[in-house]
Amino acid sequence: xxxxxxxxxxxxxxxxxxxxxxxxxxxxxxxxxxxxxxxxxxxxxxxxxxxxxxxxxxxxxxxxxxxxxxxxxxxxxxxxxxxxxxxxxxxxxxxxxxxxxxxxxxxxxxxxxxxxxxxxxxxxxxxxxxxxxxxxxxxxxxxxxxxxxxxxxxxxxxxxxxxxxxxxxxxxxxxxxxxxxxxxxxxxxxxxxxxxxxxxxxxxxxxxxxxxxxxxxxxxxxxxxxxxxxxxxxxxxxxxxxxxxxxxxxxxxxxxxxxxxxxxxxxxxxxxxxxxxxxxxxxxxxxxxxxxxxxxxxxxxxxxxxxxxxxxxxxxxxxxxxxxxxxxxxxxxxxxxxxxxxxxxxxxxxxxxxxxxxxxxxxxxxxxxxxxxxxxxxxxxxxxxxxxxxxxxxxxxxxxxxxxxxxxxxxxxxxxxxxxxxxxxxxxxxxxxxxxxxxxxxxxxxxxxxxxxxxxxxxxxxxxxxxxxxxxxxxxxxxxxxx
Length: 483
Known about the structure:
The protein has helices at about 45-60, 115-140, 145-155, 160-165, 180, 220-230, 235-245, 260-265, 275-280, 285-295, 295-305, 315-345, 350-360, 365-375, 380-390, 395-405, 420-430, 435-445, 450-455, 460-470, and strands spanning about 25, 40, 75-85, 85-100, 100-105, 110-115, 170, 175-180, 200, 210, 215-220, 305-310, 310-315.
């Protein structure tokens, strides 16, 4: 799922650095684009345009949320079929419907007729972006299988050649299963792995959404507007990564942050000056950048926002552009570092999902691998931080060991968890479409405590969620404490 960036709580961006010329949209851009749309590479203008385009399209063509709109029936959507890498893909253009010899387009503000030529521009635009996303995904993950197999061979003390010779052989006691499948190692990545069977272009509560193990995904007109601004098919690539069963599939994907994995190949590109600064999926990555690279996002935001009056912002553009310039190299470094993390994760998915569950943290593997790759710099720079770690080494190790011992509850000890399992929370997040922060805000609103959710099963959490939603909708009286 590719949610909208949680940007409004943070702030804005600004002009100057990397002043690359902007390109006005040609007349052949899709008709649902806002008039005057531009493709912008300069960070400040990209951010200003992002905010402007979201304001311009949110009510009529945005992702207003499941409770803000009526259901939609796509049985009459215009469909287009294509074959890529030997796989048939059906594109559903849901807001476009044929009525007699006309095509009508609808959004949340009304409906109008469009010409065949206008609709063909929509088709050509989406299909070209789809083809580009397939190429980008395959390129980023091209070496993943090779890297994962090499790491797996080293871990089990076998030569890579011997392991590879056995990988696709059947397991004697289970001839329908290969050793590759038994060890949950990925297959060599191909473009076909990124080709889903259905691409729905319509309206959802998010920029995009995909269902694991189904080959079905949705993206929205608003997401296409954002992708045009960035200059690459960001949301499409994100959802196609979810839909790639060689990368994400149940049940093991419940034990890893699939949203972070799907964000790596698209939110860290050079052209995207917004996501690392503001997107909710990269919140923990910002913490890692602060710890290891010394970039304090909170401090930057305090410095660059000169004025904020009911969400009308004035920015110190020079300061912001100075900081954004530093993040270009950070993003490039993270693309390399996270590929190494994925190599480690996919070399032993069972271990790492178990470790993540033990730590009650679906991003634990990312934290561990960053700690292996970089020295922290957060305590006054690299030298001072290393001195601090040396002085406090024994205390730190004692604290880490105690935290690890208690994490997830003692195995077999009968101790209660500190709360519901990470997998249950992740499932609830996916089912509800709410972020973890949104759920925490609701919990505080209805005075739900840690004791209220301790040891609750997933069905019990869903029941609690549904009761809260009923109260939010005003069906059961005024807000109060939910039991």
